[in-house]
């Protein structure tokens, strides 16, 4: 091979090598772009999934019937529904309980109305000093004066009107007013609230719950078929719904 031919051959090899390098770089760019897109989609998808799980429901229809149970708790369930059971231990003065009501209570109401769960409320009193002690006792005692048909509306109003922990609230005048606005027409309702007729019963009920160590970490405490539900689930409506559905299998 002459010198000229060798030079031509070398140029061809260099050209061929550069072409291979160009194609390899293009392939790597495509792989990088695909990987970045996949990561972005995973992040967006995960965020959307998380958002949906944490999104609060709205009460979509009527409520399941309310019944007062012999032990002093209040059950919300369609006739014949015995399980799964979600026990809700809450205090009308407890800020975390109010947050739970705002995030997940509609899920429980919707599922109870659909016959998917029996919800049992246990209003208790976790505070021992004023003004919160008086607040929670007035509210919980008044709730025991409310007939079953208006209990849920009154319960929800108490959380909506929850006073700060630093000042007196839930006045007797307000409790009477809110009861009537919830639809209570029982002529004995007002005197029941103003005399705090059920205060001792409420205190005994609360003590029984604490003595049984049913709320080891305070309120709110949710139990699903007796087992405590982690707060990460309780405060995530989608996760709470799924946990109840799984328990029903």
TrEMBL record:
Transmembrane segments: 30-51
GO MF annotation list: isomerase activity; oxidoreductase activity
Entry-linked InterPro entries: Thioredoxin-like_fold, Thioredoxin-like_sf
Stretch list, region Disordered: 1-22
Domain Thioredoxin-like fold residue range list: 84-234
Matches recorded under CDD domains: DsbA_family
Keywords for this protein: Disulfide bond, Isomerase, Membrane, Oxidoreductase, Redox-active center, Signal, Transmembrane, Transmembrane helix
Pfam family, one: Thioredoxin_4
The keyword Transmembrane belongs to this UniProt entry's keyword annotation: yes
Keyword tRNA processing attributed: no
Entry similarity comment: Belongs to the thioredoxin family. DsbA subfamily.
Name of the protein described by the UniProt record: Protein-disulfide isomerase
Source organism per UniProt: Sphaerisporangium krabiense
Lineage: Bacteria, Bacillati, Actinomycetota, Actinomycetes, Streptosporangiales
